[in-house]
Write a structure and sequence with these properties.
Blueprint: E1 2-3, H1 4-7, H2 13-16, H3 25-32, E2 43-46, H4 59-67, H5 71-74, E3 77-82, H6 83-88, H7 93-107, E4 113-118, E5 120-121, E6 132-133, H8 142-150, E7 158-161, H9 169-184
Parallel strand pairs: 1-2, 2-3, 3-4, 4-7
Antiparallel strand pairs: 5-6
Helix pairs in contact: 7-8, 8-9
Length: about 200
Amino acid sequence: MSGARDSLGGVTPGQLHRRPVRRSRAQRARVRGLPDSGPGGGRRIDRGDRAGTALGSTFEELRALRDALPVALRERVAFCLDTAHLHAAGYDVAGDVGGVWDQFDREVGLALLKGLHLNDSKAAPGSHLDRHQWIADGRIGAEAFRRIMRDPRLTRVIKIIETPKGDDALRHDRRMLRRLRAYARGARRPVHVPL
């Protein structure tokens, strides 16, 4: 997986909308060098949180980024989204997470969503600040994560817990996993899971 803002070095969001995108030799090498994401040989691009200031900060830019790649590589590229980054970029994860997936489907295609980093956010929506928080303990809240875990469109999407770890990473990840499993079973309110 590669951060969209780091993959094409020097190509700005505005340049993605002009055809053809002219890439330098170094930029073409960076595209060819996107790390392989494992089985299936695909590449996954993780969008950034700084909407308007980074390449790939909107769904439209992600689609344009993929479309700008050579056909042989384009067919191997998919996306990984991050709940805190979406929130920071101004997508309404807290209030209408289903609408966020609808928009991604219209602009990029849900079939291209292969990974999802799950984390809450300490930052305000649209703040462009990447401040991860434990799931359901931040500004996104429990309801959004319950909907994510129960949304049948996301069943096949790999979900990765990406929260602060504290002094015992394994213990904190297990705590978040128990919380997410409770949401998947339909828990309607914040789930208190002791450390």
